[in-house]
Amino acid sequence: MSTLQNPTAHLVVGVDVGGTFTDLFVLDERDGTAQIIKVPSTRGEEAKGFMNGVARISANPTQGAASPLATIVHGTTVGTNALLERKVARTGMITTRGFRDVLEMRRRDRPQTWGLRGSFEPIVPRDLRLEVDERVLADGSLHTAVDLQQVRAQTQTLLDAGCEAVCIFFINAFANPINEQQAVAVVREMWPNPYVTVASEVLPEIREFERCSTATLNAALQPVVGSYLARLEDDLRQEGFSGELLIVQSNGGVMSRATACDVPVRTALSGPAAGVIACAAVARASGFPNVITGDMGGTSFDVSLVAGGEAALAAQTSIEFGLVVRSPMIQIETIGAGGGSIASVDASGMLQVGPESAGSNPGPVCYGRGNTRPTVTDANVVLGRIAADRPLGGGLLHALDAKSAEKAIESCIAKPLGLDMLAAAEAVLTVANAKMAGAIRVVSIERGHDPRQFAYMPFGGGGALHVCAMMREVGVTTGIVPRYPGVTSALGCVMADMRHDAVQTINKPLAELDLMHLKSLLAELADACQKRLDSAGVRFASIQQIITLDMLYMGQTHTLQVNLDAVEITHHHIQSAFEKTYLASFGRILGGIPIRVMNLRYARVGVRPKFDLTILAPQGAGSTKSIGTQKVFHAGQWWDAKRYARLDLPVGSEITGPAILEQADTTVWLEPGFLARVDALGNLLVERVVQ
What we know:
Blueprint: E1 11-17, E2 21-28, E3 34-40, H1 46-55, E4 69-75, H2 78-84, E5 91-96, H3 102-105, E6 129-132, E7 135-136, E8 142-144, H4 148-160, E9 165-169, H5 178-190, E10 196-198, H6 199-202, H7 208-238, E11 244-248, E12 254-256, H8 257-262, H9 270-285, E13 291-296, E14 301-307, E15 310-311, E16 313-314, E17 317-320, E18 323-325, E19 329-330, E20 333-335, E21 341-345, E22 351-357, H10 376-382, H11 402-417, H12 421-443, E23 455-459, H13 467-474, E24 478-481, H14 488-495, E25 498-509, H15 515-535, E26 542-553, E27 560-563, H16 571-586, E28 595-607, E29 628-634, E30 637-645, E31 654-656, E32 659-663, E33 666-670, E34 674-678, E35 684-688
Parallel strand pairs: 1-4, 4-11, 5-6, 5-9, 9-10, 13-23, 30-32
Antiparallel strand pairs: 1-2, 2-3, 7-8, 11-12, 13-14, 14-15, 14-20, 16-19, 17-18, 21-22, 24-35, 25-28, 26-27, 26-28, 29-30, 31-34, 32-33, 34-35
């Protein structure tokens, strides 16, 4: 797993920067040992929290804190946060005359399905979307050559307007990019920085809005993500790092820093994606190929589904309404229900939880940093599920202020609702649990999966506090709490393979498909992806490829992804694969209707060497002795819950609820009527006790 450039360094580090904490998972390749590090995040200065974590790794910082590091794999939310907060670069667009409003018209959709009102502000305002004369027809034939004089003039207009980045988007360039290529050559001669995006390079795929949206978002993110990664790498080099910095993609693979700067739009949701990769690997190793994952951090709750050991990929996603990214992404459902989500009573007297979050600064009321509005964490502290005298992970706090949390819940929730303080705190958790259960149903029941056939794996700092509640709400029979829930995304960074995806529109009836042309396109995509792998300078255990075709029946709009065997590329095998996929999806095939092939998709995967997950398992004899008891309010009454040092429990230990299992990165709340057993990998397998 070491990089080719730095063969003597021996540490592989996964880093996940969250809204509250920055988590590191450090793997020593020499002896297979691992350590976890958790430090407070620095919002707005994410690189600072990153470097604070790196500083804790080296035993001899005089040689440079980063000198022992062979590879750093980083899951970043910088791009996602920039889009959500609209803190992106001032961006311009040059497009085909008559098509400047593609970005704003979208798919004629609206924020609320049944709403009569709604608004949308494009990333690129209309006065910065400029037009030139050019036209390529849908079949790829050149109708009008691009007017390069107009391109020069419009480029200067954007520069004069203070644009830092630009996107070149011409209609039908997916079929023939010649006009875009000529235009971008002129733009790059004039543009003072490398932040120039070409739509046909980012997404050479049919559907003009999705291509335009993806390309403009990429352009807007280039200065933001590029400058962040440049600063980060410079800081690392100053600390003696000479290895390779890799970035997690939203498809669960990793890419080089250079690639991330070219296509930063692929980093959206990369942190949660890394967590899903880790959960899938841990669950498979524990004998559970089907698992629903729930990442509860300080701000959000991110849910995904893993079936047959593989995470589900979506062809596109929306960061928020109208901000569409068409790039392979792990399917993740996100809601505002993290530990820092603020609870309030709205004007109609309804209790609400989130989406606003207190984050890490000021954080929940119990942090004692000036916030006066109660959060989910405050409710857990007041009810005794988090011991107030425990230090908070990463050295953030040495103790929690339970009294202030009680006052906040009393004044903000209990009095407006006419409840006592404890009932109000339980109500906050009830609403939060209902929201989280709803997100689980979206990724399972609404997509045709029975959650009873899946295990549930919570992770993130707050997930394990709600594992039993989620099992009750959704009907899941087994919960799997990983060994280090709070750093699961960082663990996933270390586990992730390098992956590059490419796509090319074909848009032909299957009967007219030129197989030689298809194979030629396939070879071109494979070569381009392999060059990306080679540029990273990383050794791989093996190289794999994934080939799929987007197909549909003539007259249909939505496509199915059909797996293709590179050895069996014939019309008969392509049709058989499509009909098999269609039958599995819809229960019938439509005989006699012509089949159409829309897109060729290709993924090249550099498989990184895997480490033995047993390094996470408990070492030594351990102890099942309780370290005390704690009063916990649950289901309207007080319970005496035993407290355990979770990481001291040996393999095979069984703990019955009510119980609190504590560790540096999380707390596990085991409700009455539930039992937890430590498996061979150190996971807690949670089950309901038959009564």
